[in-house]
Design goal:
- The complex is a heterodimer of chains A (174) and B (435).
- Chain A has helices at residues 23-33, 43-54, 59-69, 73-80, 102-105, 109-120, 166-171, and strands spanning 94-99, 134-139, 151-153, 156-158.
- Chain A has 174 residues and is of the alpha+beta class.
- A 4-stranded mixed β-sheet of chain A has the order 2-1-3-4, covered by helices on one side.
- Chain A is elongated, with a radius of gyration of 18 Å.
- The two termini of chain A are 27 Å apart.
- Chain B is an alpha/beta fold and 435 residues long.
- Chain B is globular.
- Classes of the chains: A alpha+beta (174), B alpha/beta (435).
- At the A-B interface, helix 2 and helix 5 of A face strand 3, strand 5, strand 11 and helix 14 of B.
């Protein structure tokens, strides 16, 4: 298995940043303010909202979040980069996470990871397929060790994946 | 019930009774199954009486440390002039452990009820349930259940008309094992990087948002309603001889085993019964080689040690390991122990928050030395190098992540030394290209 590589390629927004926190999204965020004693505590939820809407978290989005929550962009960037689930660059239309930690590893998880790389056309783990359809990353324990190998396709948790099931699973995502 | 398997006669089914029963997920379904009786009863009791009941039950934290729950609650200040918080640790990320996931997927109201009781008992009006970001399905189920609990009046400004405010807020993590450490979790909840904090101050004095805080695991809180309804004596009686470990425990069994899944047993059940009877034993034609009994952060047991052990906090310690989160990783005779120990070291190196030198450097160098051995370039001196590194990584850092990396390495060298030597002498082919 090749060592973990940086997820995906490096990209930047090519069009001016359109604000995320307007209208309904703004209202959703403000609805959270009363649930925490500080604005700062809404940072992880706000970053999730950005990623849900835009697919990844760009530098201008970081600046916007900082402005909305009275934080500095550098601070927000420090938090974004601590957590593995936030994408700091564009990823494929479907983001696939495959667990290869020991309990799954001894049950053949590396074969599943190889099959995912091969069938998606991603050249290696961490890369995006040339058609932009899939990004496949190797992740640490997904907390479903009794159902090896679990994978997470976008928000869909798929259990008991074996290499022979990979092609059929991928067909569900266009 | 050992979802996804039918219940085994040797299980003692309390928390897992409705695993696999989708009807138990709704508020009404839960009430029909006896749910929320514990909360109604608790709201009629004094805070102190609830804490005493839980203390008397002998319940100990199910997240890994095994600290007595009632005692932890009693550390919270009695004076509630400033906000108190309950944080439920649903960041289940310990390799080999998948029990809290099933509690949330199948019996979300059991957890909400436990949270509400605990919040009231510690003088808190708000509970945050911190759910790991990858748990998309438990998140959806929990979100729906919290909404129902508010609509039914179990939560909100006057829980069941008691005049006591109890709010439950779900908070989603974003991928970081270290946020399962309670002080890392508190920082994450505050919108910070999930770096663990130095203790003291302990959470009961200064926790999340600088306020008195109690952090409890999902399984711990889910057990609380049962204790209130059926009594501390009943819970204490669920014990096969060792009064320090009481109640039932969910065990996640995974790896090279016929029937992986969750099994619920009375504390003190022989590990042999769990492995061979409940979980069905090894795959055909195979024998067990090693068992990691408490999630990946505890010392590896040989087959012989595991088969002689009783499954409770003290029973596992007596055989050289720890109960931890009760995620049991089973490895059979096909397993390359050196490769799997390397894989665990890599896990810890990836998950280190990098605050402490011993952990940041130790986990990374341990991984690299193991890679050297796997590539056929290892030397005898590497044993001492790994052991020295592990010693520096044990008991010297803010949290126990680096200790957790050292545990499988040290026990692995002690118990499976010949497998390392096979790589060093060339009698085993390298399983990794030279780095």
């Amino acid at each position: 298995m090749t060592p973990r590589s940086a997820h995906g390629g490096h990209g930047t927004e090519t069009v001016p940043h359109a604000p995320v926190f307007v209208g309904e999204t703004r209202a959703r965020l403000e609805g959270l303010f009363g649930k925490y004693p500080t604005r700062q505590a809404c940072l992880l939820p706000a970053l999730w909202m950005v990623q849900e809407e835009r697919g990844w978290i760009s530098e201008p989005a970081i600046e916007e979040v900082a402005g909305v929550l009275d934080l500095t962009p550098a601070y927000v960037k420090g938090v974004v980069t601590f957590y593995t689930m936030y994408h700091t660059h564009p990823v494929g239309r479907h983001f696939i996470q495959v667990c290869t930690t020991s309990p799954c590893n001894i049950c053949g998880a590396e074969d599943v990871a190889r099959a995912l790389v091969e069938k998606t056309g991603c050249r290696e783990l961490g890369a995006t397929s040339p058609d932009g359809r899939f990004t496949v990353v190797e992740v640490e324990c997904l907390g479903a060790c009794g159902f090896p190998t679990p994978i997470l396709v976008d928000d869909d948790f798929v259990e008991d994946v074996t290499p022979d099931k990979v092609a059929a699973i991928l067909e569900r995502y266009t | 019930m050992g979802y996804p398997h039918p219940s085994h006669p040797k299980e003692t089914v309390v928390l897992s009774k409705y695993f696999g029963d989708a009807g138990a997920r709704s508020f009404d379904g839960w009430v029909q199954r006896g749910g929320y009786e514990g909360l109604r009863k608790a709201l009629g009791m004094s805070r102190e009486a609830i804490v005493e009941e839980v203390k008397a039950s002998g319940l100990r934290g199910r997240g890994g440390a095994g600290f007595p729950t009632g005692l932890k609650w009693s550390f919270m200040p009695k004076d509630v002039a400033k906000p108190h918080y309950l944080v439920c640790n649903a960041d289940e990320s310990e390799p080999g452990t998948f029990k809290d996931r099933e509690i949330m997927r199948w019996t979300p109201h059991a957890l909400i009820e436990g949270c509400a009781i605990a919040a009231y008992a510690i003088g808190s009006e708000r509970c945050y349930i911190y759910i790991r970001g990858e748990f998309t399905e438990p998140w959806r189920v929990m979100s729906a259940a919290v909404g129902e609990a508010y609509a039914a009046g179990a939560l909100g400004e006057s829980a069941f008309g008691s005049g006591r405010r109890i709010d439950v807020v779900l908070h989603r993590g974003a991928g970081a094992y270290i946020c399962g450490e309670e002080t890392g979790m508190m920082n994450s909840l505050e919108g910070k990087r999930g770096n663990p904090r130095i203790k003291p101050p302990f959470p009961a004095v200064s926790g999340v948002f600088g306020m008195p805080t109690t952090v409890n695991n999902v399984e711990t809180l889910a057990a609380v309603p049962h204790i209130l309804v059926r009594g501390a004596e009943w819970y204490k009686g669920l014990c096969l001889g060792n009064p320090k470990s009481t109640g039932t425990k969910l065990i996640s069994v995974c790896g090279h085993i016929q029937r992986p899944g969750n099994y619920e047993v009375t504390m003190g059940t022989p590990v042999k019964d769990i492995l061979y009877e409940m979980a069905g034993g090894p795959r055909p034609g195979r024998t067990f080689k090693a068992v990691i009994p408490g999630g990946s952060s505890v010392p590896i047991m040989t087959r012989e040690e595991a088969e002689e052990a009783l499954f409770d906090y003290e029973g596992i310690v007596a055989k050289g390991s720890m109960l931890g989160s009760a995620g049991m990783i089973v490895m059979d005779d096909t397993t390359d122990m050196v490769y799997q120990i390397w894989r665990l070291a890599r896990f810890y190196a990836h998950e280190s928050c990098a605050q402490c030198t011993q952990c940041r450097e130790g986990t990374a160098w341990t991984t690299k030395v193991l890679e050297r051995i796997l590539s056929g370039k290892g030397k005898q001196e590497d044993f001492q190098l790994l052991l020295d590194l592990s010693e520096q990584m044990t008991g010297k850092t803010i949290c126990v992540l680096s200790d957790s990396c050292a545990a499988p390495v040290v026990s692995g060298i002690q118990k499976f030394r010949s497998e390392f030597e096979a790589y060093m002498t060339g009698s085993r082919q390298p399983s990794m290209a030279a780095v």
